[in-house]
Protein 1
Amino acid sequence: MIKIDDALGIIKNEKIKIKSVRVELLNALGRLLVSDIKSPIDSPPFTKAAMDGYAVNSSDKSESFKILEIIGAGDVPLKTVTRGTCIKIMTGAMMPEGADKIIRVEYADEANNRAVPHRKEIKSNVIGKAENLKTGDIVLSARKLMPKDIGIIASIGMKAVEVAEQPVIGVITTGSELKDPGNRLKPGEIYNSNGLQLCAQIIAAGCIPKYYGIVEDNRGKLSGMVSRAFSECDIVLLSGGVSKGDYDFVPDVLKEKGLKILFHRVAIKPGKPVLFGRKDNVFAFGLPGNPVSAFVIFEIFIKTLLYHLAGLEYKPALFHGRLKRDIKRNDTERTEFHPVYTYREDVIPIKYHGSSHLNAMAQANGLIMIPQGAGKLKAGDYVDVRPI
Ligand code: AMP
Ligand code: MG
């Protein structure tokens, strides 16, 4: 059994060639940007009005201003503002020559083609050329693209971006007791939740799932399915059958297929039996069958691999809050991830009786880590929460 950090180190140590592809912005959400984006333009490209109003020169203390012309966003001013004159301007329009300030429309009356301020305008209400960005500035560094990032990239005129190719991730669920949802259970059977849960985690991580369904605990059948998945996927996830039971064939079958086991068993709770290996350019994970274990292992290890394959480091944005109740445990051998509900500063541990208790996760919006060796986290302690 190795420590979590050592297991993460092994994943991050794997050398791989990042393949990237250009995608249109409409298809770029959730994809991993592989390199920095520099702005090809100044933003804004010209000095512009931030308010509807009257463009004047700030040194001009005239009591009223003759309106030379009216310009809207997209217009180019034809006149130059001189003493005693102004140009009526709308938000977003290009500032005219001679003007450096806008008296907002609410602060002036208009009569006989003149603007007469009745209140002092203390702000300039102008956005300078390149005030937001200069040509060549780094706009975004490599990251998972979120909706605001798509807006930022569009704002500098780029219609496509270079992102990591989406790995195809195969999901094989092993277990003779499993039935897919929609079927009637016979005695001894349970529903397969890992299959669809893992596919959902794969999609949410911006990758492509390939679901192979259920394989019963049969060496030959598993072997056939693993061969197929290895030839069709970049990463293969197998759930169940990775422990030490008589019918846990996953480790042996993976070895038979030529997988080099890079780690098997990690000091993590839930999820200790997890296995990770590689064959040529295909990676495989054996995940414990208990659904909370499979979920947590995806969060901790598989996401790390997915980012690593794109040349990035997976760093979830942690919340920070105060534990509402003590958490105690006797077995301190492993680092434990515990579901919590976080609201504002409060981190409330969810009552949860182990890795098969999937529905406890319904109330959780995060996981907290109880470090190896720690028997207790005290109410009032500050903890980091990993959002889920
Ligand atoms: P295993 O890792 O195969 O020993 O399975 C551990 C526990 O998880 C057993 O109670 C299994 O019935 C259950 N389990 C295994 N696979 C799944 C699955 N795909 N969905 C839900 N529960 C599962
Ligand atoms: Mg099993």
Protein 2
Amino acid sequence: MKAQLAIFASGNGSNAQAIIDACKQGIINADVAIIITDNPNAFIIKRAVKENIECKIFKPKVFTDKLSYEKEILKLLTALNIEWIVLAGYMRLIGTVLLTAYPKKILNIHPSLLPKYKGLNAIKQAIDNNDNELGVTIHYVDEGVDTGEIIEQEKITIEDLNLPIEEIEAMVHSVEHKLYVTTLQKLIN
Ligand code: GRF
């Protein structure tokens, strides 16, 4: 039986794409059953259409609070027998409804060697700090911002911090895509 995954994403979705590809190739023994986004303009929606994966837009503003927002998402996840929630550039904190329903089953990826540089613009935070030890962390999600238990990390040493930030980001992203796939493989297969 293949595990059923839900990917939550708010933007480009390059990590989501790497995971979709790995599922299709049987590298991860799972199906991406649904993509959930909070952003009607996210590029991930186009990827979902191309991949023929169901994609639902949940606009938080439509709901009275986070509780009702997540309850609505949970209904859908339950109906689809989702076992794992994979955050891939999802720009919101997960609340108690989903954390309670999915203990140790919600993962996130962050472009730093946590606990260094939590939150937004982690790569830029490292560069601004003149720190050439970048990295990628995969962790379980808790109620905090990038604070959950760490599962895997990979260090990326940047020789020249004066490179254009886009180049540095591209190096980090390519490590992200591989590390997310191998971590999911270990957890699920
Ligand atoms: C990644 O850098 C990830 O670590 C962070 O958000 C970014 C998402 O990129 N949480 P993408 O949408 O997967 O391309």
